[in-house]
Specification:
heterodimer; A: alpha/beta; Rossmann fold; 2 domains; six-stranded parallel beta sheet; six-stranded mixed beta sheet; 16% strand; B: mainly alpha; ABC transporter involved in vitamin B12 uptake, BtuC; 19 helices; ABC_transp_permease (chain B); transmembrane (chain B); ABC transporter permease (chain B); transmembrane helix (chain B); cell membrane (chain B)
Chain lengths: 381, 434
């Protein structure tokens, strides 16, 4: 399904292949000569590639100039890849929205290894992108270096503050503890066994937001509803290991957990599958993951990276926002939250959750994002 | 003219080139059926490979570990061992180099050899264990080395998770100390002096400043030539090849088979380990990170080795081609929007067709044989039509039948002279491949 979403405007039309049918009717040796010719054509096209590229991109800009100025924005994924059903995918959907709504030129580069970050950022710079998004805190160092080498290009990084004091990097962070708090509250309300689980990616400040927000949500529900729900959490130390996510979940199920919240990128796909197999509820992260397992995904802790990317891209490139700043988005900005579908949890729980959401927005509840804050939060209950 | 075609077809380089072209042709069909313009895709691929000096340098950087692992696999294969554990040995090399590079902080003259050596030894030890199990207990190296890949992967993840090495808020370790870096002029190129000196050489500046140009490829090429020399020109290499060709015959001839198996795996593992170590010292992020899956340096090395027909020196162009496809493939994604799966299929198709390169010499033989048969039939016809007549005709007829009995014999007498050299060449090539 990913392919459909990623359809792009065919801005390279016109460089058609030579007639291929000729190969079938010729004898092999003659076909061989043809193949050589084909190879030569390919090489020639290869040489002319960069020049035809620049001309076609200027075409695009002139044709869409009527709808306002167009910009070129690219993103580089982390090693999860663009189809991670999570973070990278939702970022890409944000860029696609910029393409559809604003007619901007967007594309992405997938990183397979950590050493690809630097070379991919470099390729994006070569492609004359005005703004380059680095998806994920793992790329902080690489972005810092790229920004230093290319002071004329704007960079954005998701889930990390500006790693250097460079004036051309914008750090975008989310108060994920707020949405995690709400789903923790829901999990505790829905759990029948009195045990809920939480599978996380690689231990880091960002993931601690999920961990302690969720735990605090459970604690809050215990206090408010007189429950005694226990919460166990484990780091998979990976964002791309679905098998590991699955095996951790199976262990949690055998411990008695009947709701498991995943905040582990690609690893989380394994968590949701294992929940489906075990017949328990899963809670998704980043995007509404109910499509992954109908009837299993209770709700999701949304982190609307796409909203942030669209918003920040527009502000940066229109000049409203200067580079070098750090932006933190939360419930009140509409950048985190839960989806509207409440068929699995029931209306009562959903309404209670909305009430909690209002309390967070108003500042009556401040969900903790670190271990210390969590201890303070629990003590204050 | 036809005979030159046959001669050309028999050359190993021809089959490689034809295979690559067929690979691109099939890949074009794959791309077209997925809805992406193949012409523009290949244009993007090539411009991403060689479009700028910097890209060529990046291809070379990416080819370095592939070359090392390719030589390692090719070398082991010549000794009759299938070292599928190149990946794990590479990972162990990176792990050992990272541990040593972070814990020791010495001057560069000591630090670099120490870090590289630690990676090499880690790879060699892993290879030694695999070789020893094979030599001593006959446990097949494919099983042990595959398992070692996973042991290495999880060992890597374990080391990353240790507080001593784990850099907070990242998925990886700290970088090794600067003194271990093997880039070319790492400090000078970013200093004010360096920047001022480079300003007049935009290409050089582009390459030096924006790429991790490092000495790895030089070491790799030297290693390729050395291993080639070792196998062909030394007593040790002779013994190893003998073990590879026929273990029992080698033992009968007084060669210590066990010793050679262990030694081979040590060298093969060391080559993979040094690849890992040089990647840590040579390119950012200069550390290891949590691996969800293999990074495929070793497995791609396997493909490189077999594209190269398991000749260590031929691994050099093969690794460059492979790295170019991988690196250029990302540009296809960027400019065409083709998903990386399609790019992988494209690369896979090209490599698959290269692996089929051995078909081409067989094709040459087939053409020759059918032509000989046709000539024989023509002779028979001529003999029947001509009935009794002059002796010369009969003579030439019998001579041609004789030729046809040997399927390899050429139809035309003129090419007879060329034949022996041809077949000897072919035998030579076959021998190499084995």
């Amino acid at each position: 399904m990913g392919y459909l979403v990623r359809e792009r405007t065919g801005r390279r039309k016109g460089t058609e292949m030579p007639d291929q049918s000729s190969f079938t009717r010729r004898g092999f040796l003659k076909g061989l000569a043809g193949a050589c010719a084909l190879g030569a054509t390919g090489a020639l096209v290869g040489c002319g590639g960069s020049s035809s590229d620049s001309s076609s991109s200027s075409d695009t800009s002139s044709s869409t100039a009527t709808s306002g100025t167009t910009h070129k924005v690219e993103m580089v994924t982390d090693t999860g890849g663009v189809n991670d059903q999570s973070f990278n995918q939702i970022s890409w959907s944000g860029l696609q929205r910029l393409q559809q709504e604003e007619g901007w030129d967007v594309s992405y580069l997938e990183s397979k290894q950590e050493s690809d970050y630097a070379t991919n950022l470099d390729k994006a710079v070569d492609d004359d992108a005005e703004l380059i998004w680095a998806i994920g805190f793992a790329m902080a160092d690489a972005v810092g270096n790229a920004a230093k080498a290319n002071p004329n290009v704007q960079f954005g990084i998701i889930d990390n503050a500006n790693p250097t004091d460079a004036s051309n990097i914008t750090g975008v962070q989310f108060r994920a503890q707020e949405s995690s708090f709400i789903v923790g509250y829901i999990a505790a309300c829905v759990s029948k066994t009195g045990m809920v689980g939480n599978v996380l990616g690689v231990e880091s400040d960002v993931l601690r937001q999920f961990e302690f927000g969720y735990k605090a949500g459970v604690a809050y529900a215990n206090k408010e509803k007189g429950l005694n729900v226990q919460c166990e959490s484990q780091y998979a130390e990976s964002f791309g290991d679905a098998a590991k996510g699955s095996s951790i979940t199976q262990r949690m199920v055998s411990d008695g957990c009947d709701v498991v919240f995943q905040a582990a990128g690609g690893t989380g796909v394994g968590v949701i599958n294992a929940c489906k197999d075990a017949g328990i509820y899963a809670i998704g992260a980043d995007m509404d993951q109910s499509y992954l397992a109908e009837g299993t995904v209770l709700t999701s802790a949304l982190k609307e990276v796409d909203v942030a990317i669209v918003d920040v891209s527009k502000r940066l490139l229109s000049g409203d926002l200067k580079g070098g700043s750090n932006i933190t988005l939360g419930l009140s900005d509409g950048a985190v939250g839960i989806p509207e579908d409440y068929s699995l949890m029931g209306e009562d729980v959903y309404n209670d959750a909305l009430a909690v959401e209002e309390l967070i927005k108003s500042g009556d509840i401040v969900p903790p994002a670190t271990s210390d804050d969590y201890d303070k939060f629990v003590a204050s209950l | 003219m036809n005979n030159t075609v046959i001669k050309v077809l028999r050359k190993p380089i021809t089959s490689a080139i034809i295979a690559i072209l067929i690979g691109f042709l099939v890949a074009a069909i794959v791309l077209a059926s997925a809805g992406y313009d193949p012409g523009a895709s290949f244009a993007a691929l090539f411009s991403g490979m060689v479009g700028r000096p910097r890209y060529i340098v990046n291809v070379i950087i990416k080819a370095t570990p592939l070359l090392f692992c390719g030589i390692a696999v090719a070398f082991a294969f010549k000794v009759g061992l299938f070292n599928i554990g190149a990946e794990g040995q590479y990972i162990l090399g990176t792990v050992a180099a990272t541990i040593v590079g972070i814990t020791c902080d010495l001057p560069a003259v000591l630090e670099i050899p120490l870090v590289v050596l630690s990676g090499t030894i880690a790879g060699a030890l892993s290879g030694a264990l695999i070789g020893w199990l094979k030599a001593k207990f006959g446990i097949h190296e494919v099983i042990t080395s595959i398992m070692f890949n996973w042991i290495s992967l999880y060992l890597c993840n374990y080391v990353v998770s240790l507080d001593v090495f784990h850099q907070p808020n990242t998925t990886g370790t700290y970088a090794v100390h600067d003194s271990a870096f093997t880039m070319i002029l790492p400090n000078w190129k970013l200093s004010d002096d360096g920047q001022a000196a480079l300003v007049n050489f935009p290409v050089l500046r582009d390459v030096l400043v924006r790429c991790d140009v490092n000495v790895g490829i030089v070491v790799a090429v030297v290693a390729a030539v050395f291993i080639g020399w070792l196998l062909k020109r030394t007593k040790m290499g002779y013994e190893m090849r003998a073990v590879g060709l026929n273990k029992d015959a080698a033992r009968f001839a007084g060669i210590n088979v066990e010793k050679n198996i262990v030694l081979c795996m040590v060298i093969s593992g060391a080559l993979c380990g040094v690849a890992g170590a040089l990647n840590i010292t040579g390119i950012s992020p200069h550390g290891i990170s949590t691996l969800a899956a293999f990074e495929n340096n070793g497995f791609n090395g396997l493909s490189v080795a077999f594209i190269a027909g398991c000749s260590p020196v031929a691994c050099i162009p093969a690794s460059l081609l492979f790295a170019g496809l991988i690196y250029g493939g990302q540009t296809v994604q960027q400019t065409m929007g083709a998903p990386s799966e399609i790019i992988s299929i494209m690369i896979g198709t090209i490599v698959f067709c290269m692996a089929l390169g051995g078909v081409i010499p067989m094709l040459a033989e087939h053409i020759q044989r059918s032509r000989a048969e046709r000539a024989e039939q023509a002779c028979k016809l001529a003999a029947e039509v001509g009935a009794t007549p002059a002796a010369p005709a009969g003579e030439s007829g019998s001579q041609k039948t004789e030729n046809a009995a040997d399927p390899k014999a050429p139809a035309e007498a003129s090419s007879k002279v060329a034949e022996p050299t041809d077949s000897s060449e072919k035998k030579g090539a076959d021998g190499d491949a084995r």
